[in-house]
Structures are given as structure tokens and as C-alpha cells.
Amino acid sequence: MASPGGANSGVAQRSSTWQDKLEEHCQNRRIPLPSYNVLSDRRGKRTAWSCTVNVGGQNIPARYWYDGQYVNTAKEDAAEAALKKLVGNGSTAQGPSNGLSQQGRVLGWGR
């Protein structure tokens, strides 16, 4: 009989993210792990957030700016852009299944 406090009880399984995929790519290629830099830009009464990721000596920006509650989505966006740049056209990089792709993106705030 399984105990109620088993390894998976009440804990949602974490799906793979772009950040995870980028880190795995770096480990497989034996290059330093990515570092993220979160950016903010005051726009009127609101603040927009974005991110850059430094990987393999390249500083790669996220494609969009986001509302503050979606800062992690900005990091996901930057990780996705970096991974697609590192592997070419991105055809081998399958996206995560966690619904973070453009959640919280502020329309009109693209780069």
C-alpha cells in the first residue's frame, strides 16, 4: 500500500521549460550555464519587464516586454530565443508544454 506522503502526493510534476532546455543544451555542449539579466523600463504609470540571457559569450534578448507579474515569462522568452539561435532555425527545439509562450506579453511592447 502506498503511503499518503509518497513522492508524488500533492505535488504537480514540473514540465520542461525553455530555461531547462537551454541549460541542458549548455551542459551537453560543455559551455558555461546561461545567466539571466532582468530589465525594467518605466513607461508612463506602468513598468515593462524584459530579459536578456548570456550564453556562450552571446547576450540574447527576449523578443517582448511583459507586465511585472510575468517576469518569469520574459526569462522563458529569452531562453527560447537563445536556444533557437544556438541550434539554428529552431526546428529541433520543441517548446515546453507549460503555457508560458507569450502569457502576459504587453501588446505594442515588442523589441
Secondary-structure blueprint:
Elements: H1 18-29, E1 35-43, E2 46-55, E3 58-61, E4 64-66, H2 71-86, E5 105-110
Antiparallel strand pairs: 1-2, 2-3, 4-5
Helix pairs in contact: 1-2
Biased composition (Polar residues): 10-19, 89-104
Organism: Lepraria neglecta
Protein name: DRBM domain-containing protein
Q: TL;DR of this structure?
A:
By secondary structure, the protein is an alpha+beta fold.
Descriptive report:
The chain contains two helices and five strands. The chain has helices at 18-29, 71-86; strands at residues 35-43, 46-55, 58-61, 64-66, 105-110. With 111 residues, the protein is of the alpha+beta class. The longest helix is centred in the C-terminal third of the chain and has 16 residues, at 71-86. It has one domain: 2-Layer Sandwich (Double Stranded RNA Binding Domain). 25% of the residues lie in helices and 29% in strands. The strands form two sheets. A three-stranded antiparallel beta sheet has the order 1-2-3, covered by helices on one side. The chain has a two-stranded antiparallel ribbon with strand order 4-5. Residues 10-19, 89-104 have a biased composition (Polar residues). This is DRBM domain-containing protein. Residues 1-22, 89-111 are annotated as: Disordered. It comes from Lepraria neglecta. Residues 21-86 form the DRBM domain.
